[in-house]
């Protein structure tokens, strides 16, 4: 038997599962989408990060953001196998308004979205939630707690983000596998409930 080298498709896609689900990981600029996908992906994530330049300094608002030197310019991609039957393909969208045209293509075939939210910058999530709703994607909110960010109650978050009562809200730390997995599980369960 002659072995062949692994192709990119072999690394990123799995053909031995019954259900492959496309999930978007969305959120405003610098909320932790790339970190979240990197934390959750069982394969080396595909990233399209570029160094931030002075040209974008007047466009990308870095207030409340510390140590950010790169930004996603197309997408992030990762894979997570949940069982022999189900694999999640995670697609991270760019957070800046100037990349919104990428969203239309990325929403095709997506079952739902996990919306990452920074509790210090809640109002920056409005445009993202509006886009998710515009494309008709069911979604869950995951509040990404960075070091020192305020803890807000679910009721406070629901009111601030004007969420429907059935929209799941969960907290996570995008750097932590367990809490990030819990956020994804919350979204998957919500999608399953809606499918019944």
Automatic annotation (TrEMBL):
InterPro entries reported for this sequence: Gliding_Motility_GTPase, Gpn, P-loop_NTPase
Recorded coiled-coil stretches: none
One Pfam family in the UniProt entry: ATP_bind_1
Superkingdom: Bacteria
Xref: Gene3D superfamilies: P-loop containing nucleotide triphosphate hydrolases
Family recorded in the similarity comment: Belongs to the GPN-loop GTPase family.
Record's keyword terms, sorted: GTP-binding, Hydrolase, Nucleotide-binding
Official protein name in the record: ATP/GTP-binding protein
KW Ubl conjugation (keyword) present: no
Membrane recorded as keyword: no
Organism: Streptomyces lonegramiae
């Amino acid at each position: 038997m002659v072995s062949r080298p692994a192709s990119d498709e072999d690394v990123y896609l799995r053909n031995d599962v019954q259900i492959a689900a496309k999930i978007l990981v969305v959120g405003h600029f610098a909320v932790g989408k790339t970190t979240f996908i990197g934390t959750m992906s069982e394969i080396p994530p595909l990233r399209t990060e570029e160094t931030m330049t002075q040209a974008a300094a007047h466009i990308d608002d870095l207030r409340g953001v510390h140590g950010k030197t790169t930004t996603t310019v197309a997408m992030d991609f990762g894979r997570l196998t949940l069982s022999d039957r189900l694999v999640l393909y995670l697609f991270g969208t760019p957070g800046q308004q100037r990349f919104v045209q990428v969203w239309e293509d990325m929403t095709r075939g997506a079952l739902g979205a996990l919306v990452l939210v920074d509790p210090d910058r809640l109002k920056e999530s409005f445009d993202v939630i509006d886009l998710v709703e515009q494309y008709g994607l069911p979604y869950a909110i995951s509040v990404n707690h960075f070091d020192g960010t305020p803890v807000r109650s679910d009721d406070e978050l629901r009111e601030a983000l004007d969420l429907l009562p059935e929209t799941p809200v969960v907290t996570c730390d995008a750097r932590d596998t367990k809490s990030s997995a819990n956020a994804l599980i919350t979204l998957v369960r919500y999608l399953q409930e809606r499918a019944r």
